[in-house]
Inverse folding.
């Protein structure tokens, strides 16, 4: 494991000198990989947020209605978005605000972007909360998972007169988009990190389409707004690894592990890179860090556990599933996976116990029947 060096500076003030140690923020490594930027069209944030004149006119007409005009601006934004959601067609597409409003469709991030654009139009302050949602494994054969980010939006009541207040002291309205039963609230982020997230989502689309140069450029754009956003760092490393620039990928993993608290996916993918390179000792050291890591982000552990099951690394999968269940004890599918792991390890009684837990938390009849059948099979052995 490599670490960047600490920089020691000598600070001189007047006639006295004191020696202080200052740790400079790590600098993001510059990849050796180069691509012709002019060959691709990368949207600017204003392109993503700008609404058409017709759309702005409809918003103005909406807020002039007698039952809306007396509301605060943040409430007006919430009401307008709520009205659009009645017939909104949810699909996993990353659309600009104007396109999402025109088509009346898009994913959660598109809706957040649309809410942001309307808030900008009505001069309403916003920030966002990252939501931890169940990830979907989109590509098993190439051993990476592409997931869509999910946020909810906070719309803040305008300050009165020249009053200056922090967001935390102002009344707010929460706009959530298709909340799921197992969603978990994460950290609150500002506009820049949200834009970084959106570019990462656009890059994920291109990664799925195997358009690696465009994915690379979109991730570079993401870094313009946050150089510490772990999912963008991780995805950039994956893109560079697939382009054949393993050294660039490794430098990014090491950088990400220094600057981000979100280390689960970074360590997992770094481990995979080292295994591919045949660096067994280094891979074992990274694997040890991952197994010992204390991280409360639940669904990343679940994804790493599923990956370990696919690799038939059942001992590691058991540890990862336990970490996941410690933070999300009500997710019945994790107990079913844990039962399968226990069965593979010959731990029949533990497998039965896990299945009983799965039954306790399962609601749908089809899941209950599945778990009961597995439990009956184990009891008959």
């Amino acid at each position: 494991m490599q670490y960047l060096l600490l920089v020691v500076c000598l600070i001189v003030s007047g006639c006295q000198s004191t020696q202080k140690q200052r740790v400079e923020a790590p600098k993001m490594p510059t990849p050796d990989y180069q691509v012709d930027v002019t060959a691709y069209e990368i949207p600017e944030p204003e392109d993503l947020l700008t609404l058409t004149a017709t759309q702005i006119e409809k918003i103005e007409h909406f807020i002039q209605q007698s039952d809306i005009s007396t509301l605060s601006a943040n409430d007006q934004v919430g009401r307008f978005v709520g009205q659009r959601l009645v017939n909104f067609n949810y699909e996993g597409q990353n659309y600009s605000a104007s396109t999402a409003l025109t088509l009346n469709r898009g994913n959660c991030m598109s809706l957040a972007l649309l809410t942001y654009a309307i808030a900008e139009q009505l001069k309403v302050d916003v920030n966002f909360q990252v939501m931890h949602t169940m990830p979907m494994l989109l590509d098993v054969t190439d051993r990476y998972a592409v997931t869509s980010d999910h946020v909810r939006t906070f719309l803040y009541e305008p300050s009165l007169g020249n009053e200056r207040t922090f967001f935390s002291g102002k009344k707010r309205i929460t706009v959530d988009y298709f909340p799921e039963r197992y969603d978990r609230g994460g950290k609150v982020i500002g506009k820049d990190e949200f834009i970084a997230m959106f570019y990462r989502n656009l890059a994920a689309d291109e990664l799925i389409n195997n358009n690696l140069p465009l994915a690379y450029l979109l991730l570079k754009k993401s870094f313009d707004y946050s150089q510490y956003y772990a999912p963008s760092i991780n995805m950039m490393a994956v893109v560079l690894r697939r382009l054949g620039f393993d050294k660039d990928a490794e430098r990014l993993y090491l950088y990400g592990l220094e600057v981000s608290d979100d280390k689960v996916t970074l360590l997992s993918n770094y481990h995979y890179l080292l295994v591919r390179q045949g660096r067994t000792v280094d891979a074992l050291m990274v694997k040890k860090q991952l197994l010992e890591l204390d991280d409360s982000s639940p669904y990343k552990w679940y994804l790493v556990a599923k990956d370990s099951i696919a690799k038939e690394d059942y001992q590691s999968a058991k540890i990862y599933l336990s970490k996941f269940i410690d933070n999300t004890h009500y997710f019945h599918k994790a107990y079913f996976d844990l039962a399968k792991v226990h069965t593979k390890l010959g731990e029949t009684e533990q497998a039965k116990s896990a299945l009983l837990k799965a039954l306790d938390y399962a609601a749908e009849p089809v899941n209950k029947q599945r778990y009961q059948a597995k439990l009956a099979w184990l009891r008959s052995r």
The beta strands are 8-13, 16-21, 89-90, 105-106, 126-132, 150-156, 172-175, 184-189. The first helix runs from residue 45 to 49.
